[in-house]
Amino acid sequence: MKKFMTLVLSSVILIFTGIAFGSVNLPFSKILSTFTLENLKLAVYDPKKLGTTETIILQIRMPRVLLAYLVGLSLASAGTASQALFKNPLADPYILGISGGAAVGAALAALYFPTHMGIFALVGALISVAIVYNISKIDDHIPVDTLLLAGIAFGFFAHAVTSYLLYVGRERIHMAIFWLMGTFNGATWDDVKLVLFSSIVGFSFLMLRWKELNLLLFGEESIALGLDLNFYRKIIIFMISMLTAFAVATSGIIGFVGLISPHAMRLMFGPNHKNLLPAAALFGGSLMVFADLLARIVLKPAEIPVGIITALFGAPFFIYLLMKRKRGELYA
């Protein structure tokens, strides 16, 4: 319980820190005094009447920080479920080709419908999952090895299509390039609502099925333990896809958070998904807020895409995991 309370407290502290620091630093006392009933009503019904500082806190910083937290939570939850589904400690939420499909959708939108990048990215992500799923399915059976290879193959194909779109539209594609690197710049309350819905549904279902996630680690042997393996694979694939697709649609492609969070928390809480899943979700949210904070302050007033920040500390961690696996010390 103390470990969980530490994670919750860390989340709260990082959220307030994310609101306080940026191109303009704000004192914590000012942030707390902004949360009055009058200001909250104005933020909802008539935001134009808010003062400058109140606008920065309630209309710019808060939706950005909360979106970062929810995206991190979603990717960490999806990553934890992916590692159980594939029985592979190096699996991440993008392994089903979701990021590739989202990238194609975003690139198309940047060329022809620049105000609808999020919608096109979401549709592209969902279509990619449907394609990978149908390629992998054999008579209502879903072999995870085939699913994994299909996801990887589709990812390469989608990358080629995205590269072509970026090439032919290189004069109009700057927005898509920035999106592909991952960013929370311009986050709105509508984005927060969208990811809040998907994260509540996806995380709640996975938490209710933590026993099944544990059994999935046994693979085909779990059938003897009473698990309808194919049914739960389908449901968990859907939840992973929903969590990841909505996160990607609102923030772009941000790597490594879904890979790092389960491993970091597995060291503290063990492999039981009853504890691992909520711990990874809390850690993932905090990690994303921290990465976004660094993205805003390292070169301020300029901003670094948050995907670059997560890659800088995520890639060495991934190499560390590969070395552990090479020595036979890494388990799902």
Q: If you compute it from the alpha carbons, what radius of gyration comes out, rounded to the nearest whole angstrom?
A: 20 Å
**How much is the average pLDDT?**
88
Helix fraction by DSSP (H/I, runs of at least 4)? over 70%
The CATH architecture = Orthogonal Bundle
CATH-defined superfamily? ABC transporter involved in vitamin B12 uptake, BtuC
CATH class wording: Mainly Alpha
Main sheet?
Answer: none
Q: Number of domains in the coordinates?
A: 1
At the fold tier of CATH, the topology name is ABC transporter involved in vitamin B12 uptake, BtuC
- Spans of at least 5 consecutive residues with low confidence: none
Approximate shape: globular
Q: Order of helices and strands, N to C?
A: HHHHHHHHHHHHHH
| SSE-based structural type | mainly alpha
Distance between the termini: 23 Å
Number of strands: 0
Q: Helix count, per DSSP?
A: 14
Task: Please state roughly what percent of the residues sit in beta strands, choosing from under 5%, 5-15%, 15-25%, 25-35%, 35-45% or over 45%.
Answer: under 5%
Structure, explained:
By secondary structure, this protein is mainly alpha-helical. The chain has a single domain, classed as ABC transporter involved in vitamin B12 uptake, BtuC. Helices cover 74% and strands 0% of the residues. It has 14 helices and no strands. The chain has helices spanning 2-20, 28-34, 37-45, 52-85, 98-112, 117-136, 144-168, 174-180, 189-208, 210-216, 229-251, 257-269, 273-297, 306-326. The chain is globular, with a radius of gyration of 20 Å. 46% of the residues are buried. The mean pLDDT is 88. It comes from Thermococcus barophilus. This is ABC transporter protein.
